[in-house]
Specification:
The protein is mainly α and 203 residues long. It has helices at 4-15, 35-41, 53-58, 61-74, 83-96, 99-110, 123-135, 140-158, 163-166, 175-181, 192-199, and strands spanning 29-30, 33-34. The radius of gyration is 17 Å and the shape is globular.
Amino acid sequence: MQSVHQIASEILDREGGFVNDPDDPGGATNFGVTIHTMRRLGLDLTGDGAVSVADVQALTRAQAQEVFIEHYFERPSIDQLPDVLHATVFDMYVNAGANAVTLLQRLLRDMGLEIIVDGVIGPQTIRAAHAAETQAPDHLVDAYGIARRNYYYRLGDHRPASRKYARRRDGGKGGWIRRAEEFISPRYHLSDAEHHARVSAWD
């Protein structure tokens, strides 16, 4: 089983370096850490009394990894979920915040487990996640990954500016979809034809 530091390092590889895309609601981002997160944490790296784009640019990979582990893994209690869920939920939490937990909770409810969908990992969600692993040990991670892929497609349905993250210019799978499928068994990956059919209404 991967350590949290190995998982965080792989997330950093996926996130890449500094980006300031006007179509990204997260704003200026470096190694996946947004300017909003840095302001919330008070990460004034330049020491000028304000957290600005310059601070985002100054963030190092090591600092980003520390932020991920403390604020996106330990504090949300992802470490209390079954080990098999650590990598995929952690990666999704970095990418989509508490939506990662909401997605898991809805999946657990779909599996017949009675829990509140509130985006917070508490004792109820922890118990339900461990029960789900016992109930479907070979399918839980795939089910979560598929739910995550569907979440990204729905974002594209409702926010045209985000479609470029789910569909490349040539029509192929965008970064969001490829990222979700890294956590899905190959037999459940969408074919190119299935992907094109899913996004055909976006044209």
